[in-house]
Amino acid sequence: MNVLDLPFVKHLGLHISANGALSLEVLPHHKNHLGSVHATVLYGIAEACSGQAVIDKFFTPYPDALVVIRRAAIKYRSPARADLSARVKNTDPPLDRVMERLQQRGAAKCEIEIETRSAGEVVAIATFEFFIKVD
């Protein structure tokens, strides 16, 4: 599975750049009435990036895992006016520890923090809490 295969992600136009970050070439339809990138686009790239992190870590050993976001928060730091890139900044607990919990208990939760940049500047920081259940 790859987050880029999801219809909404395709609609946004996201892709994975050479450095592994999720990227978006900002086009006119991504902008809001102020001429900056729309808040939902910033949220969308961050959410997709967090989802890809979960897929990369857990879907090879657990292809039928149930994965849902329980909570999300985003702080918009400044307007984005150029192309975007998003990458994992931190996970709590570390994803290896989450894997151990899945193996022991069959379920775990974790938070993934995503940093989104535009023209080299951090424009948003988002945190997604995931619940993961495996059989």
Number of strands: 6
- State the major sheet: 6 strands, antiparallel
Task: For the record, give the distance between the C-alpha atoms at the N and C termini, rounded to a whole number.
Answer: 18 Å
Strand order of the largest sheet: 1-2-4-5-6-3
The level of helicity is: 25-40%
Second rung of CATH, namely the architecture: Roll
Instruction: Write down the overall mean pLDDT.
Output: 95
Give the SSE string: HEEHEEHEE
What percent strand? Answer: 35-45%
What fold name goes in the CATH topology slot? Thiol Ester Dehydrase, Chain A
CATH first level: Alpha Beta
Count of separate DSSP helical elements: 3
Determine Rg (CA atoms, Å): 15 Å
| SS-derived structural category | alpha+beta
**Per the principal axes of the C-alpha atoms, what is the gross shape?**
elongated
How many discrete structural domains?
1
Low-confidence stretches: none
The CATH superfamily is Hotdog Thioesterase
Q: Brief overview, please?
A:
This protein is of the alpha+beta class. It has helices at 7-12, 39-58, 95-105; strands at residues 15-16, 22-24, 66-76, 84-92, 107-118, 121-133.
Defining traits:
elongated, 3 helices, 27% helix, Thiol Ester Dehydrase, Chain A, alpha+beta, 135 residues
Descriptive overview:
This protein is of the alpha+beta class and 135 residues long. It has one domain: Thiol Ester Dehydrase, Chain A, CATH 3.10.129.10. Helices cover 27% and strands 37% of the residues. The protein has a six-stranded antiparallel sheet. The model has no long low-confidence stretch (mean pLDDT 95).
